[in-house]
Known about the structure:
Blueprint: E1 11-14, H1 30-43, E2 47-50, H2 77-90, E3 94-99, H3 109-114, E4 128-129, E5 152-155, E6 160-163, H4 178-194, E7 198-201, H5 234-244, E8 252-256, H6 262-269, E9 278-280, E10 289-290, E11 292-296, H7 301-315, E12 322-323, H8 333-337, H9 343-355, E13 360-364, H10 385-396, H11 402-411, H12 448-453, H13 458-471, H14 473-477, E14 479-483, E15 490-497, E16 500-507, E17 513-516, E18 527-531, E19 542-545, E20 550-555
Parallel strand pairs: 1-2, 1-13, 2-3, 3-7, 7-8, 8-9, 12-13
Antiparallel strand pairs: 4-6, 5-6, 10-11, 14-15, 15-16, 16-20, 17-19, 18-20
Helix pairs in contact: 1-2, 6-7, 9-13
Amino acid sequence: MDNSWYKEMAVYQIWCRSFKDGNGDGIGDLYGVLEKLDYIKSIGVDAIWFSPIYPSPLADYGYDISDYKDIAEEYGGLETFKKVLDEAHKRGLKVIMDLVVNHTSDEHEWFKESKKGKDNPYHDYYFWRKGRGKNGKKPPNNWLSTFEGGAWEYVPELDEYYLHVFAKKQPDLNMDNPKVREEVKSIMKFWLDMGVDGFREDVITFISKKEGLPNGFPLPIATGIEHYKKGPHVHEYLKEFRHDVIDKYDCFVVGESPMSNTKDCLEFTAGDDPELDMMIGFDHMQADCFVTDTIAMPFNLRKLKKAFSRWQKDLYGKSWNALYIENHDHPRIISRYGNEKFRRESGTMLAAACYMQSGTPFIYQGQEIGMLNNHLDDLSKFKDVVTFNNEKIFKKLGVKGQKYLDIANKTSRENARTPVQWDSSEYAGFSTVEPWFGVNPNYKEINVENEEKNPDSILNFYRKLLKVRKENKIIIYGDYKEHFADSDVIYCYERNYEGKRALVVCSFTDETFTFHAPDTFDLTKGKVILCNYENPESRPTVCALRPYEARVYLYE
Ligand code: GLC
Ligand code: CA
């Protein structure tokens, strides 16, 4: 099946709980999505990716699923979802679901059964092991979870531990068990038969664990990760899913893969028999931190450019990039790589910097209106297991109280989970009652209604940008060559396709900057097809870039 249509689309990500409350209980839902489908379409995207909306105890806000073949009642249930699917399709919007099969919720039927006894047919759906040491009081190995202390939880009734590489309420599935793989394929078929168009596969490269579960290299978190970050059977299992299910439908799959480099990515996405169509990598999300968002560092443009350029160059002609700068797992991009005081300018520039590259754009709810990080005044107002786990880790290092609060405000992924700001009315038009999670107090100024009114808004820039991509195949398919890689101010790259050329120039400073064009470009001969300011003037070899200006010149 030729599914290459995914290369020409743009995807809008919905994290439902905070998107729009349609029935007045303070919780975002699919009724709200129905109300806003025309808005989504108006941005110029072609597909929606739903972060998990299945029944879930919400230990990890839906990434802990208790029933894979249903939709949570509070979001409107399966009937409302079918309506959304139908209405989206009518508008030419595809729909992709989040497939979270590295782990289930501990409230999933399989886990409840598996806990009943060693002879239960579901016992081997998970990793149950005896403890080590005298009296078996030590966990089976030294692994630590990413979200919550040790990676093993003791269950006294069984006198065994189960493995969870994320939170305690997210036991890992044993993918080595063929029955588990049959379940995964059955889940995929269930949604594809209903008409969904693909999957975003959650931490999918973690699904195979090294035989014997050996001790890992000691780290402050995620000890053991080298034994499952690209486990021994991951390719085999993903090929099985691909051949038995995905290949039979007109659909696509994008896999999330923490800690993967481009070489890893190509193993999954290149060649005649790729397992994934695209990969969500993390390299470019680490330009202001060390490994994880939580270990903040000053923003480093060169680091960002290196990551972007590596993925563009290494994948070109071999596989396909997923382009993103925001999702539900990271703080807001303007607050990170841009400048809140130049919200419009830096928000639009960052969009151009990322989405003028080759790949499929993914845009996260609220990003298109330039939503910013939140500033909560008390830790009790946070909601996420990760925030609280980090609190414990930082405490051990002597960082607590206000100091940790500052870190959480700056680095927590909850920054991306505040309700979408629709207008300046109470609760930002998200709901008629107090929402489940506090609205960012800046909603009176930053909201969809204001962005709609202003022709130069971030929202209208996103619309232009997506149109430019559609109208210029060079932006989608052209090759990529970076200029001035050493600059700490400018991100500049060239694209080439079928005899045409394009030059993308982005300024990362809040001052005016005199830009000297690469030798091979005469700036007066190119047509500016995208710019976040009025009247971009050029001389043949130089132009004055205004704060955070972005320009795209096309040479036909
Ligand atoms: C992925 C999800 C994240 C979740 C984690 C565990 O990284 O994007 O939100 O917490 O997996 O499922
Ligand atoms: Ca609701």
